[in-house]
Every structure is written in C-alpha cells, then in structure tokens.
Write a structure and sequence with these properties.
Oligomer: single chain
CATH topology of the largest domain: Rossmann fold
Strand content: 25-35%
Number of domains: 5
Low-confidence stretches: 343-350
Radius of gyration: 42 Å
Distance between the termini: 23 Å
Helix content: 10-25%
Shape: elongated
Strand order of the largest sheet: 16-15-14-17-18-24-23-22-20
Mean pLDDT: 85
Number of helices: 19
CATH architecture of the largest domain: 3-Layer(aba) Sandwich
Number of strands: 34
Length: 763
C-alpha cells in the first residue's frame, strides 16, 4: 500500500513541482488509494442494535373531539396534519416494523386496539390520557417495550398530574408534536359552582370564571337561563386583553324547591341570541361556552317540637311563623296547669283526674291525673305523636329535627328525658333552642343538669335570673351580622336601620359568660353594659342556641309596617338554621367524578329509628336520564362502613339526571323516599382547554426517559430508534467495506481528482 501511495505521489512530482491544484489532485488520489487499500485489511465494526421482533413499540393516538380544532387562519385541523403520518403505510411505521413489534392503539374515554389508525373518527367526548397510559403499562407488564409514540394535544380529561407524581414509567414516551399553532379564538366558562341557602328569601348564587383568548376589545354576553331557555339574568363584559379572565356572579330565586337545573352561557355579544342555540363564526368551538348546573334546595318536612311551660305571646308568633313554611312541621306541647300534690288521705270518692279537666273527658285512662301536668298538643299529628306527653324514648324524640324549650323549668322533665335531650343533640345531631323567660336558664333550675351542659352559656348560681327593672336594646354583633340566617335586609345600612326601629325589651336572662368555642351572635345593651343576647355552639353532632330575651314578641306587636312581618321571617330562618344540617334517616350524597371517563358515585347512609347504622337493607335507585329514559339500579353495602351503601352511575350524555331512592328495612318497612340529582357535561370537559398542553407532554417525556419528537423529524427518529437504548439488543460484527459510504468515499475522491485534471488540462 505504501508503494502504491508513493507511486501516486511520484507520478505527479516527476513532471513538475507540486503546487496548487496538482497538490490537491495528488491528495485526492492518495486518499482513494488508501481507502481501497484499507479494504484489503478487512476491518470489522462491532454494532449493538435492537433484536428484530423482540421489542414492542406502541403507537397511541388521541381519538377525542379536541383533535378536530382548527386554529384561525389555518386550513388544516390538528388531526388533518396527522392523516399522512397515521397511515399504516407511512415510511416511519414501515421502518419501525422492520425491527419492532408495532402495536397500534386509540383512546378517548377508554383504550382500545386498532388495526388501521387512519380509520379513526376523532369523535370521542373524553381524553382519558392518564388511564390509557396506565392501562398500557399494566398490559405490557413483563414485556420488552422500546417506547410509546404518543399522538395527542395533551388536553386530558383525567388526572395526568397524579400519573406524573407516581413517576413509575417502565418504558419511554415519545410525544409527537407539530409546529406551534396560530392564534386561537375562544370563549369558555371555568370553575362554575352553585351555592344554595335554605333560608327564607335567600337567593341561590351561581359563580364562574369567564375566560377569553384572542378576542381583545370585544364584548362578551353572559346569561343565566332556566331549562326552558328563558333568561333569568344577563351581564356584559368587556375584554381588555387577548388573555382575559374575570369572575362573574349571578343570584336568582329558584321557582320551586327540590332539584332543578340552570344553564350559564357566555358568548360574544355580537353572536349572542335571546332564543335558541347561538352559532359562532370566530371561535374554534362553542362546546365550552355553557355550563349546566344542578340546584338542589333540599326539602322537608323538618319536624320541630316546641315545649312551653305556659301559653304565652312567644308561642303565638312562633307557631304562626313556622306554620307558614310548608317545609316545617310544627308540633307544640303546652302546659296549661301544673301537677298537684297527691295526698294519701284524700277522699276516695273524689275523682283522680286533675280538677281542670273534670267533666271534660270520658277516657279516664288517658286524662291527666292529680299528680300530672295538664298538657295541650298543638299541630297536625301532634295528638298521636305526643299522646304520652314529652317523648321518653329515642324513637319518639329522634323523629324530630329540632327542639325549642320556652319558659319551662328543668323539673318538668325527668332525669332520663334530660339525658335523652342531651343525646338528641350530641348523637342524633339535632338542634336545640332555649328561649328566655321566667322559668328558663337559671330561673328554670338548669344549672348542674344534663341540659345545662348542652347550653352554650354558663348559668349563674343565683335564681334572680330575670331583670325587669329597666329596658334593654337588642343588636347583632359583628360575628352575628355575617350570618345569613340572622340578616333580613340585603344591605348593612338597612340592617342597622332595622335594629334601630326595634322596640325596647323588658325581659332578659343574665348569664355568667359564654362557653369556650361558642359564638356570640347578638348582645343586649343594658345599663350595666352589653350582655349576651344570642349565643350558639356546636355540641357533638348537633348545635345549640340560647336566646336570652324573654319578650321578643314585642318586636311584632309594635312594628310600624304591618305588611312586613320581620319577626315571623326571623323565626323561620332560625328554624331553618336549627334543622339545616340535621342528619336524616335516609341520606344520599353524589360525588362527581375526577375524570369524565369515571362514574358518579352515590353514597347512601341509612339509620334506624334510634339513628344507629341500618344494615341488611335494600336500596333501589331509579335514575331518569336527560332523554327521559329510566335506569334501575341497586346500591351495594359498603364492606367497611356499617349502614352505608354505594352505587356507581356512568353519565355519558350531557344533561341533568334525577335520581329517586327507595330504601326498605330488613323487616320490610319502607323508609323515606329521597330525591337527588346531578348534571353531566362531558363535551364541555373535553374543551375546557384548547391550547395544546406542551408542558405536560414535556414532563411525560422527561419523567419516562423519552423526548419530544417533532412531526417533521418523525422519519429520522424512527430510523434511529433501533440504535438507541432498547431492552433487547444483539451484537453484530460487520466489515466496514460493506458499508456504502466507504466505497462511495473512494469513488468520490477519484472522481474529484479526475475532474481537477480535466478542468486544468493536467496530464
């Protein structure tokens, strides 16, 4: 070889000096001779490559509707750009098939294997990206996977962040991304919520975030509509930037109690319509312009037991106020005569009945005796429910939601009954209200009794608990003014005016102090300074309230505007507060899914008459779907929680769902029928975001050990994959001269050398 090289150099130097082009020609010829001579040595190359067919490569394609988005100013949608690469005969897929076992999959609400990717319709309403990746990880467990090519915009409708936090990726992900998209114009609603109050005249509140992009200096119209399309309220918003967000709030009064739905919609003002569905020519989609919301104001009946030691003015106004509320059932137990001592030397010819009832009752077994107080039952159904007087058992007392004690002493109740009332609040979760009066609080001897422990105030040791020497004023504290159930006016100034117009009061019960954790909601202004007027606290599962005034009825007697009954509204709102969070024998909670591909979870809690968990019951569900069809289901008992039954329901259609729940006790007795409802809008969730989520795709690639693959570099990347780090490889030893580039190098040098000589006329 050295001789050949020397001969080539001598052939040029023998004719003339080596300079300029002659030197370059000699070098090219020498390199060609060296390259060809090197082949005689048979050099070998050691290569590590993927073993053909031993590794799996998966191709996963997003089949959801968001892939059909076409940015403004572009002719092709996202999926149109992928039509050619997704063809099974595409060059990159053919190249992968030479070395790998290629598997093709598509996902929307679920993962499925496909034969031809070009046949996908891209009409799915979900993008369960995290679930699809997790399913493939489980499916390929124990297999050798070289990587997963991911074709998606990254706009998942399930929890991808949870998948990233787990960080367990057995194979690399290669998200395929295209060039940055042009400007997207869109209006959307996010984070919509409903807040409902059970208090009288309190409106339901609907809040949401209005987001717009690419629509600067344009006006947006936001409407709240009922299910019939009638506009309940409307707001106009001005977009001041291309990336615009603003929180909006609507208030409306539901027309009826129970479950109902409303629609919140945002559109460009120029494209909004009063009737029908609007159509947009500027936005990329209108699927995210509306939100369907469920409004459930609950429903009664809520049973309230009122116990009074004497007929008084307070009873008149409380009864009148509560009976105006169709959701409240008022039962009153009034003592009109106290019990009398029973002497053993009494004339046996004298009747045993209380003299007040002598001659008025023919039933000697049920009429009150000398040593029993004379009671009057008030309210529909109270005669049967309170036939034996104040309840002495759990089943009777626990059937009520709230208990009001008015001017009745502790001696009226037995020790067992007071312990039962304590359990009514602490365990059953009921509400207890004690009103001020001559025989309430200290005057009623409640200090050092089970009921004294339940009250939110410390009672004084002395019995002179009522002060009638001077008038007092009643007003809300700062904390009380924040409670919606104590407010009767929408504005603070109107509330202050209302209290200024209230009359002076004469009867009130002083106490030592409020207990730790109690809330001072109102104060009584006395000559000795402010004293507690209204105090509330949580006690166990329930709540207690102490109203220290004994003549609140004066408020209604001396009102200037006879058409406005503020006292009645006040009593109804207090009653609603006492009963609002009280557990019921049959309760159902609907948990929305974290992802649209997951079901709504219905949790049913059943309790017996003593409000203990009820097992071995039958719970049947009847769900009315948006199209009017009905689906029957049965809730299954929860193995870990007594008295709890669960059911899953997949809401695949946009609209409102109404569920009727019927429970049957183990003995065959029917429990209360309960109605609930929810809304589902999977199409809106799919378009909650429209800009491709590149940060999420980047994190998926980094966490899994992969990388982002530009769409225009897909062919070259696929060709290089066999030489990358794959699970199963093989060692190959190949001669270098078999490489095409090697012989091409030698031929190229000879051709260049010949060209130089011909160009300059060299021999």
């Amino acid at each position: 070889m050295l001789a050949v090289v020397g001969l080539a150099a001598w052939s040029y130097s023998a004719r003339s000096s080596l300079s300029g082009l002659r030197l370059w020609a000699m070098l090219l010829k020498t390199l060609a001779v060296v390259a060809l001579g090197f082949c005689l040595l048979e050099p070998m190359q050691r290569l590590q490559r993927a073993r053909p067919g031993a590794n799996v490569v998966a191709v996963l394609v997003d089949n959801s509707r968001s892939m059909e988005i076409r940015p403004a100013g572009e002719r092709q949608s996202r999926v149109a750009k992928l039509r050619q690469p997704l063809d099974s005969q595409a060059a990159w897929q053919s190249r992968l098939a030479q070395d790998f076992d290629v598997r093709r999959y598509a996902f929307d609400d679920r993962l499925r294997a496909v034969e031809e990717l070009e046949d996908l319709d891209f009409g799915g309403s979900n993008s369960a990206l995290a679930e699809a990746i997790s399913t493939l990880q489980s499916r390929f467990s124990g297999r050798h996977v070289a990587g997963l090519f991911l074709f998606t915009d990254g706009l998942a409708t399930d929890d991808v962040q949870a998948l990233l936090q787990q960080g367990n990726f057995p194979f690399p992900l290669f998200p395929v991304v295209s060039e940055s998209e042009a400007e997207l114009r869109d209006v959307s609603l996010r984070d919509a919520s409903v807040r409902v109050s059970s208090f009288e005249l309190a409106p339901a509140s609907v809040e949401a975030t209005v987001a717009a992009q690419g629509l600067a200096n344009r006006s947006l119209s936001v409407r709240l509509l009922d299910t019939e399309g009638k506009t309940l309220d409307r707001q106009t918003i001005e977009c001041d930037s291309d990336l615009f967000e603003r929180r909006v709030r609507f208030q409306f009064q539901p027309r009826e109690r129970g479950y109902q739905t409303v629609v919140l919609r945002a559109m460009l003002e120029s494209e909004d319509v009063d009737q029908g569905e609007p159509v947009s020519r500027l936005e990329v989609t209108t699927a995210n312009n509306s939100r369907l919301l469920a409004v459930d104001r609950g429903g009664g009946p809520y049973r309230i037991l009122y116990v009074s030691g004497r007929p008084n003015w307070e009873f008149k106004f409380i009864r009148r106020a509560l009976e105006e509320d169709i959701e409240l059932v008022f039962h009153g137990l009034l003592r009109i005569a106290k019990k009398e001592p029973k002497f053993s030397f009494r004339d046996q010819l004298v009747e045993d009945t209380n003299p007040l009832l002598a001659g008025f009752s023919e039933d000697e077994e049920t009429v009150e005796q000398h040593d029993e107080p004379v009671l009057i039952r008030v309210g529909e159904g109270s005669a049967e429910a309170l036939k034996a007087g104040f309840p002495s058992g759990q089943e009777e007392l626990f059937s009520y939601h709230a208990l009001i004690l008015d001017d009745v002493e502790a001696g009226f109740f037995s020790q067992q009954q007071m312990l039962l009332m304590r359990e009514f609040v602490a365990s059953r979760g009921g509400g207890l209200l004690m009103l001020g009066g001559q025989e309430s609080f200290v005057g009623g001897g409640y200090r050092d009794t089970p009921l004294g422990d339940v009250l939110p105030v410390y009672l004084r040791p002395q019995r002179d608990a009522i002060d009638k020497q001077s008038t007092v004023r009643y007003r809300l504290t700062r904390e009380g003014a924040l409670e919606p159930w104590l407010r009767l006016r929408p504005q603070q100034s109107e509330e202050l005016q209302r209290f200024a117009e209230m009359p002076d009061f004469l009867t009130w019960n002083p106490v030592s102090d409020i207990k730790p954790g109690a809330s001072l909601l109102a104060e009584i202004d006395t000559t000795a300074g402010p004293q507690p007027g209204l105090v509330a606290q949580r006690f166990g599962k329930g709540r207690t309230l102490s109203l220290l005034l004994g003549d609140l009825w004066r408020w209604s007697m001396r009102r200037e505007n006879q058409s406005s009954d503020d006292l009645g509204q006040n009593w109804r709102q207090i009653a609603r507060w006492l009963t609002s969070d009280v557990p019921r024998r049959v309760e159902v909670r609907v948990a929305p899914p974290k992802a649209t591909s997951q079901p709504h979870r219905l949790t049913v809690v059943l309790r017996d008459a003593a409000f203990q968990p009820l097992d071995n019951a039958t719970v049947r569900l009847s769900v009315t779907e948006p199209d009017g069809g009905q689906v029957q289901a049965v809730a299954a008992p929860d193995a870990n929680r007594p008295g709890v039954y669960v059911a899953n329901y997949w809401s695949a259609t946009d609209g409102g769902y109404l569920c009727e729940l019927k429970a049957t006790a183990p003995d065959g007795a029917a429990l209360d029928t309960v109605f609930t409802g929810w809304t589902a809008q999977p199409s809106a969730a799919e378009f909650a975001r429209i800009q491709p989520d590149m940060p999420t795709l980047q994190r998926l690639a980094e966490k899994s050990g992969g990388e982002l693959v530009p769409l225009d570099q897909l062919d070259s990347f696929a060709a290089s994959l066999p030489s990358r780090n794959v699970p199963v490889t093989e060692i190959r030893i190949e001669p270098l001269w078999h490489r095409p580039w090697f012989i091409l190098f030698a031929i190229g040098c000879l051709c260049l050398e010949w060209g130089l000589r011909r160009w300059k006329g060299l021999p």
